[in-house]
Amino acid sequence: MSDYKLAVLAGDGIGPEVMVEAKKVLAAVSKKFDINFELNDYDVGGIAIDNHGQALPPETLKGCEEASAILFGSIGGPKWDSLPLEQRPERAALLALRGHFDLFSNLRPAKIYPGLEALSPLRADIAASGFDVLVVRELTSGIYFGQPKGMEGEGEEEFAFDTMRYSRKEIRRIAITAFEAAQKRGKKVTSVDKANVLVCSRLWREVTEEVAKDYPDVELEHIYIDNAAMQLLRYPNQFDVMLCSNLFGDIISDECAMITGSMGLLPSASINGSKFGMYEPAGGSAPDIAGQGIANPIAQILSASMLLRFSLGETDAADAIDAAVMKTLSDGVLTGELLAPEKRDQAKSTSEVGDYVVAQI
Amino acid sequence: MSDYKLAVLAGDGIGPEVMVEAKKVLAAVSKKFDINFELNDYDVGGIAIDNHGQALPPETLKGCEEASAILFGSIGGPKWDSLPLEQRPERAALLALRGHFDLFSNLRPAKIYPGLEALSPLRADIAASGFDVLVVRELTSGIYFGQPKGMEGEGEEEFAFDTMRYSRKEIRRIAITAFEAAQKRGKKVTSVDKANVLVCSRLWREVTEEVAKDYPDVELEHIYIDNAAMQLLRYPNQFDVMLCSNLFGDIISDECAMITGSMGLLPSASINGSKFGMYEPAGGSAPDIAGQGIANPIAQILSASMLLRFSLGETDAADAIDAAVMKTLSDGVLTGELLAPEKRDQAKSTSEVGDYVVAQI
Ligand SMILES: CC(C)[C@H](C(=O)O)[C@@H](O)C(=O)O
Ligand SMILES: CC(C)[C@H](C(=O)O)[C@@H](O)C(=O)O
């Protein structure tokens, strides 16, 4: 019997209600696979600002440090948008957690599920050709964290500056993540850069090619970010793993998420070199629909599955959750946003979907 | 009778053949509107490397300096892709010309033409809702030109760095371009940034809001680049003018171009503070179809129209070209790539399309 301590940070908006469903699912695999979870809840984001005066209180951080992994909900909302930038949930909690735990490896799978092609904003024939991409995004370096960053000068000559920065080591470790992932998938890595303009991208290309030599079974392709943004619309099924720097991955992963048309189904993982990680839905806190019991819990449930797979190595339990989710979707047990307008009366609630997943395990 | 000297830089691939059609159209408006053009041809890009050993030879640059504006074709191709980056056509000619003439204001219109909705890779109902965007991209600053840029350190700690940099002055002048353009269009500016991460974006937001005060009839909205990349797919018709920094504009303008599904119709303008400008198709040199007489000349023809409008102030002639192009499209006089596969036998050649446009003037 394995024992794990998990930090559960449900956060704001729909976070708490979808987290309830993920916990049910964890309870189900706990029983079935004889895994013991100690789930400890901590405030994060807006609720933490309200309760403790800051988005990432020390007790939350301490709880995360003591855990094997973090199951994260979603944070932010209009209530906290007028705070100074540095104190807002997204920066003060999300970027801080990424930096603190060196969660450099961000995995964002995006796929069009069979039967849900009509949700994609892409033309029917293009969506029908299929889309199943894993965006591997570098998450703790690049222009997000590069120094120096600031303002200088006076009057109209005053200027702002940010530094994009990548070391060989930083590029190598994320490239390795991408190639290892590709070996288990479509065996193709498309590295996204702007090597015709950025020195960082040139080093990115060089190191990626070095890493590729250790993975002869995986094809490596380079694409400029502007072209990638285009090709994703026209020939989305040409991609398997897309390897991106922090900024480019931010853009490309959101474009990929939108291409599926079903953000409520997409989990994500942010992992460090010791397999410690933070797992969260790709979508936001959706304050407009919070508290109504209509939010889709699947992304949160699949985030729990990624946690089991990548941080705990509990592959069987993760596989069981993934299969249960597939069954739930193919049985048409769906929240409203996945249904055509004329079928919305068949929509299931957040907890009905969660219960159905549990029943399949 | 007005007299203008124009530098014509046809370049590589399909550049020369579509330029022939643009020249025909200039000849037609010359007659009709009593404007005298002195058209001087110069080598640029790959052909200039072949003939003169460099992508932007001094005589070409001198010719541009002596002209009222530059009509540019397209450059590059596999033949020159193995050259060191600094010598390649795109950097050595395109970036050099932008920098040399301080062409900070890049206008990239993208729209879905009535009747051509099916070309869009977006879902039919979304494409039918309409799309007509002008991307206003800052073109001579930001991370493209910011200093320092380079490499430092040793071994695995060796790192590359690029600097994103914007002064108040640089932001102000491109924001003014965007607001003035919006006044003549849909009266809405969406400023694209990453203000939750970049100091440059925060200054960008601040200055954009200052400029907005002078244009009370224009609505200003801010959007994060990742969200913009998504919203363009789901609700493309919410946008009118999209104001972007150099890097973000590179990505967003290509995404917009692809959304139209008809790159061969899209012109672009790069203008400086004295209304000197360089005008070129949005698409590339398409070496795969060069020399076959099937390339679409419309983007090149509309580039000539933008030149007349923005650098020469010859509004009547520009309007006449735009109207002639609209008529050509609505009469179904189209090159093959705009036609459904089963209608390709009705495709017109490059010169047939050019002649038809001329006949409408
Ligand atoms: C909230 C923001 C700072 C964050 C990012 O840009 O990384 C978000 O967009 C994301 O992708 O997780
Ligand atoms: C060729 C390249 C340097 C250029 C750019 O990034 O500006 C191109 O993509 C463009 O958009 O004109």
Automatic annotation (TrEMBL), chains A, B:
Task: Return the cofactor note field.
Answer: Binds 1 Mg(2+) or Mn(2+) ion per subunit.
EC? 1.1.1.85
Q: Where is the Isopropylmalate dehydrogenase-like domain?
A: 5-357
Record site feature (Important for catalysis), residues: Y144, K194
Reactions that this protein is recorded to catalyse: (2R,3S)-3-isopropylmalate + NAD(+) = 4-methyl-2-oxopentanoate + CO2 + NADH
Molecular function terms in GO for this entry?
A: 3-isopropylmalate dehydrogenase activity
Q: Residues that bind substrate, according to the entry?
A: R98, R108, R137, D226
Compartments where found: Cytoplasm
Pathway this chain belongs to:
Amino-acid biosynthesis; L-leucine biosynthesis; L-leucine from 3-methyl-2-oxobutanoate: step 3/4
* Predominant place of localization: cytoplasm
Q: Which UniProt keywords apply?
A: Amino-acid biosynthesis, Branched-chain amino acid biosynthesis, Cytoplasm, Leucine biosynthesis, Magnesium, Manganese, Metal-binding, NAD, Oxidoreductase
Tell me its cofactors.
Mn(2+); Mg(2+)
- Report the InterPro entries cross-referenced here: IsoCit/isopropylmalate_DH_CS (IPR019818), IsoPropMal-DH-like_dom (IPR024084), Isopropylmalate_DH (IPR004429)
Enumerate the residues binding NAD(+): 77-90, 284-296
Report the enzyme's class at the first EC level.
oxidoreductase
Q: Where does Mg(2+) bind?
A: D226, D250, D254
Q: How does the record describe its quaternary structure?
A: Homodimer.
Family as reported in the entry's similarity comment:
Belongs to the isocitrate and isopropylmalate dehydrogenases family. LeuB type 1 subfamily.
Task of the protein: Catalyzes the oxidation of 3-carboxy-2-hydroxy-4-methylpentanoate (3-isopropylmalate) to 3-carboxy-4-methyl-2-oxopentanoate. The product decarboxylates to 4-methyl-2 oxopentanoate.
Which protein are we looking at? 3-isopropylmalate dehydrogenase
Phylogenetic classification of the source organism:
Bacteria, Pseudomonadati, Pseudomonadota, Gammaproteobacteria, Alteromonadales
Primary gene name:
leuB
